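Reopening this one. Same input as before:
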Amino acid sequence: MRVVLQMAEPGVAAERVDSRTFGEKLDDLRAIVRGLDSVVVAFSAGADSTLVAKVAADELGQRALAVTSASASLAERELREALEYAEQLGIPHRVVYTDELANPAYLANPTNRCYHCKTELYTHLEELAASEGYRHVANGLNLDDLGDYRPGLQAAKEHGVRAPLQEAGLTKADVRALSKLLDVPTWDKPAMACLSSRVPYGEAITPEKLGQIDQAEQFLRDLGYRQLRVRHHGQVARIELPAEEMLGFLSAHAEAATAYLKSLGFLYVTLDLQGFRSGSMNEALKR
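Same output, byte for byte:
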């Protein structure tokens, strides 16, 4: 691989410079996946894991298995899309049922909540791989993810989970470009996260809250919004939309959205003036 760090001026973060063509990047990714010999792919139906599943299907055939975890923290739409995408990719697919909500440490919603969720997932996948003769478990971690707060990375490390995208030096932009090149259906799919990420740290996770969030976001997506979050603040639902879509929402859909979200049990419905931003709940960690 030809990924280098370009020296920066003092006090300025080093810039990663990758001189490879997209063809070379894809070749590197294919070689890494082939080297796995056989693999269980943690398949969430997001852009990253779908690219890994696509390349695994191409390179390993029946020696690759995509596995989706169906739990209360997974949006119903995401599970449906996982089934559809796996069929399109031609990769064997299985749904397992994990129960992170049975873990009091997860329900308490600490700042490392994701660690407990991923530990539950990787424990299942590790056992499945061992019992059915797959050599590795792999996820969709990309190079950009290393710069974010992701407690789940520790769980992956503890369980020896491979990260082909990161090992190949691929960024999120690379994932989208290569996915488009390979006609992977998720090439422009907005980033998603588990439903529990909509609840402020320290506030208990419950099936009822997750159900409210899922139904609220499903309603907004049915109105045509793709990039969004509904954050759960007790009686308050805080909607995040891209800034350029706010005026249209206020004029066309605010009344209907407010009525529907109130029917789910929210007392107040607000629109966040800062707009959509992934991981906005992590802003509390800086205070």
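So the earlier flakiness isn't reproducible anymore. For the record, The radius of gyration is 20 Å.
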